[in-house]
Specification:
YfiR/HmsC-like; 41% helix; Rossmann fold; YfiR family protein; single chain; two-stranded antiparallel sheet; alpha/beta
Length: 196
Amino acid sequence: MRALCKHKESMAVTQRHARCSSLALLLSTFLIFFWPPQSVAMEEDELKAAFLNYFFQLIRWPEGVEARPVRFCTAGESHVISALKSLIAVSEHKSFDADFALIATPKEATECDYVYIHSDDSDFSLPVIATTRGRAILTVSDIDGFADAGGVIELKRESSQVAVLINMDALATQGLQASSKLLSVAKLRSTKGGTP
């Protein structure tokens, strides 16, 4: 009987920790998506890095990809990528492993799971969209019009905030799934432009 009580106690503690972790993640996500950057003294690049970090957790890749480190690729080093690496290093809710790689050509993006194209590398955007289409690869960029052109996620500066635009056609074509938390705060687009 004593062992049963201890087991129940242990299960209650585990469930409590799980609820706390879920609540902390939800609260953090809420702050990232809704809190104006100037209110938390966060630079725009750091805000974009926070989004990129949360996409690791709010996007589901097909089974098999999540069993190994996610290969994160970018065409060049930027303040956003530096901020992302620092953020991942200190993340309390890290539930993934990531390998960072630089790609020299759009074709190399096919070897990645997650590709971020900074606005400085805009020449890469359309070729990367074309070469990754139909593959389980998350493409993200802060280039204007990226989502309407077929990229999966666009980070768009709107006034004092950064909005998340998700191309639902591209998401489905890549075989990826977005969590309900992400979809509830994102602006949904289609490859034809506008809302799906």
